[in-house]
Amino acid sequence: MDSNKITSRQLVLLITSFGLSITISYMFSLNLPPDNQDIWIVILLSFLYSLVLRMPLLFLIYRFPDLNMVEILEKILGKALGKVLGFFYALYFTAYSVFIVILQAQLVGVNVLSRTPHYIIIGLLIITCLYIGNKGLVMMCWTGELVTPLSLISIVFLIILGLKNVDFKLILPILSDSTFGEINKGALMFSLMVNDVFVLVKCSPYLENKEDIYKIYINSSLAFTIIGTIAVMVTQSALGIEQARHINYPFLIYSRLINYTAAFERIDVFFVVAWIAANTGRIIFYLYFAYMTFKDVFNINNGKVLYYTLGVLVGSISLYIANYNIITLGNVPIIFMQLIATGTTIVIVPFITLIVYFFRRKSLSKEENIQNN
Amino acid sequence: MQEKGMKELNKLFKKLVLINILLIFTSFLTSCSGSRELNTLAIVISTGFDIEDGKVIMTNEVINPAAGGTSKNATAQEQTLFVQGYGDTISEAFINTTLTFDRELYLPHSHLVIFGEELAKNGIGPYLDILSRNNEQREKAYLLVAEGGKAYDVMGINSGIAQSPGRYIDEIIRHDMFNEETRTLTIDEFFRYFYRPHEEYIMGVIKPMEKPQISKNTPEKNFQVLNVQGGAAFKDNKLIGYYTGKEMIGFNFIVNELKNAMIKFESPDFLVDKNRLIASRGSYSAVQIFRSRTKNNVKLIDDKLHLFIDVKFRGVLKEVTQGLDISQPGVIDEMEKACANTAKSYIEMALLKGMKEFNADTFSIGELVHRKYPKLWKEIKDNWEEIFENLEYTINVSAHINDTGFTNTPPNIRKGK
Lengths: 373, 417
What we know:
By secondary structure, chain A is mainly α. Chain A has helices at about 10-25, 40-65, 70-75, 80-110, 120-135, 135-160, 180-195, 195-205, 215-240, 240-245, 250-255, 270-300, 305-325, 330-370, and strands at about 260, 265.
């Protein structure tokens, strides 16, 4: 095993736990169409949509395994357009980092540190992220391999412990109150709300076995879809369909219901700790992706100053927004912005790039041959 | 060499700065800012909501640390204090308690939320938000209605062994597993039913009762106990009436939540061999149910919905006062039929009260129709109240007595001829 490379197992664990952390945090899926008891079918179906919609992106990184995202865009679309789109990706990663920092600050604030000011929560979070990110992407993946199984096991453990409060009759009748269109719309939206394919995209140049790209994505996506579906089913069945939608953090409340005599209750803090571990990992990665992309766009060699500046910037913006806004209300503008941004970065840009690639593939092959000779 | 040394020194300095920053931040995590020390908190164990002159009265039973949990001199009543706050909203009443009380209320140990009857009749809608919004309030707290009075009327009574009135109520409720003449919902269970369109819900009740004082060491002739028998029915978020204890057994049968109940019944007179009676006889026998299962179903018969309730239960014969020789063939079978008929009558009483008197589907029958006939439900859901009122039903109850205890023949008849 090469310690300078990233293994397939590490990426499967990271993508699964990152996807799960965003799915169960504020359970945005409960507010997607058809917003009823059929949401679990929507999540299952979203696996297919995710696979189809991410194919262009996966194909590109499979075709150019040694190039990073900006280099692929520059190679296929030309230097100028590649840089512009690379800059757009960098902005997207920065904005997404801000989103998940605020999410963490607000979830931690509402449950475990209700009286701790946001600047302390966010400040500590950013320092941790900068410290771990400072060690590089490979080290981040190796650290993730240690932390993410604990998060995943904790979440599965909580799902099992809460089954006592579950009444599966609440998610009946199946497919009777939803239309075909609503189910598919929901599945499409869900597939665009989860963006952890970027972990694979950004880590692919360092991957030990580059042939595994498709396998990694399918395995991790399948694992997170199955666990996420079960998490949503049990949450709806324990809280009730409508009440689950009224609550900001439904799975947190699900874990608060766990009660096995007075000796074993109030273990929701397990969820918070497991979720913080997974989401902190997510923030570290997305902050680092933003840094990597900015670095590639502007060809910066020593990026330490850029990295720290970016961290402070993300922390400051997050702090400002967290102090004045609530982002977990499932409100339309935030969902819409996420859909547009993720749809553009994961589907539209890679799809256009792929089309251009097919038109230019002969000239690109010639260029490659010349370079190799 | 000197340059290398400087670089290492620089690295060490950076590390020291980082460690110091982390240590400074760690000191914030001790929660010194906005901390809540135990000696500043008032630990609430039960909460009551009432309404008077349009104002909400929030009554909180708070553990009195001065009494001391182990103090032999502290009576059960002294273990807790009662703190009230007034306001237009619950949160205002909550915060107003600090105007007269020297500690901040702390809710995570509150196991009970009691609504006064007047408030419940006016509608509980405005008082529900705080139950799910406040992160201190546990979702497993029980919801009750103070039948015939204010919440604070029932909150100060402790006639049990528990150390405080709140614990006393909590213990009675938890014992509903022995006596199913009640059904108390926790906050999370309540919200499962609350949002269902065209359906209604129930809550547990609590009421004070006078009892004669047995102990001759106290001058009072009577004393008060609390009783949780019955259930409070709601319609459009307003209290509309109460189910009796027997009706609640029927209710628990219908909703398949009956775990353990005593059924008292009269067996047919022809089973009694009067020639063998050696002592006077009573009118009833009793079976304690230890396992019960209900299958509800709806069918469309001649384009009309018909409800089928099929109950099967098993129990232990606990008492026979009628002078029945249960060792004789066929006697147990007849007793099982009589027991089943009594259970059926409880079910019918509950169902008819819900249908005809309350006209409120508190049994989730509408949800059953929704599951079985989703398309039909879409058509009829807006008229569900009328349909439910006139719903035709069939109740089948099957009882099995599995055990007769230590005796086969009761003492008031002679065994053999």
